[in-house]
Amino acid sequence: MTLRHLKIFVTVCECKGITAAAEKLFLAQPSVSLAIKELEDYYGTKFFDRMSKKIYLNERGEQFLNYAIHIVSLFDKMENECKNWDSIGILRVGSSITIGSYLLPDYVIQFNQQYPNIKVQAIIDNSKEIEKRILTNEIDFGMIEGITHYPHIKCEKFMEDKLILVCGKNHPLADKIMVDINILPEYDLILREKGSGGRELFDSIMLIHNIKIKPVWESVSNRAVIQAVSAGLGLAVLPYLLINQELKKGIIHEIRIKDISFKREFYLIYHENKYFTKSARYFLKLCQGNPIPA
Length: 294
Prior knowledge:
single chain; two-stranded antiparallel sheet; alpha/beta; 11 helices; 3 domains; Arc Repressor Mutant, subunit A; D-Maltodextrin-Binding Protein, domain 2
């Protein structure tokens, strides 16, 4: 088994077929088929199910792909960066929308002061998508709200935050300081999309209390939710980090929920097989050393 076999295997998986992979690699189709056969013979198992002249990655193949991607990418990274180790290059960072909107820009500025020749590429998406990009090695590490859902991803807590229930200043609950959780289904709710860290926390607490919620609005944008709440269109549960200025200005109103806390943690996540350069470790330390802004 060689690195060539792994590169062919990864390409076949990406292209979802032998023919397409052969074209991408500029190889003859029989050569690609032979490489896959040699790989399966070497490990004594089949990585693909073959049906109706098509191949489908099976469970063993998915597990093997997880390792192959990182072995190939690590080799490519060594080839590209070894001559100018840790002085030039690209650091690929992913973050959830809340973290990317509020915290990530400051981290990048501080990092660039120390490593001006390393470019930071950032992907901002919900927590679930950031985890997927870690597994496919599209990013070096991520910052998400809540713990990871995959066994091959390591996570380290670096900050705490809380979600709070808010309404507009003209909402029927605007004069309330505290309410019972059971009244929430009586009001329109505006929530983030499923897959976001905040939505996952909110849904889990509703499930624990056997409360069914059907939001009138769902959005991938925190700003859109804030605007809708400010306009009096409903209640929302939002990160304190993002709305503390609106709270201070009286644009929106916080309502406490009796005996309920929406505290959560922010986590740094990375693949268990990921190798970090000195510069990447410096970025991680920046994240771990920053307190929540007041």
